[in-house]
What we know:
This protein is mainly α and about 130 residues long.
Amino acid sequence: MSQQINLYNPIFLKQEKHFSARTMVQALGVIALGLIAVYAYALIQSRDGERTAQQYRQQVVAQREQLLKLGAQLSSQGQSKALQAEIARLDAEVKSSQATASVSGNPETSWWCTAVPCGPSWCLRTCVR
């Protein structure tokens, strides 16, 4: 009768070290380089943002100064003649409405005469009746 003898012993095998000190230092170096790269990128983006914000501030100041200059120029020129003519026309219309209301003498209908959009002639005819 023959027997088989197992000569394999796991103790004699050379075992791999998965997490040796050298591998850990290399991984730590890669992580440190990655963090430095991210920090540099964030720093560059931050400076670009600050530069852009400064440019916008300067634009706002320049536009504000331009607006103040234009406001001073427009106020020194005065009102336009068309605007003054429109104001005079509206003043005359208000005075005619008030005159119509005072002719009627009835306080209940005097507000009605000024509020009617049909004109003072219709209001006068209605209020006098």
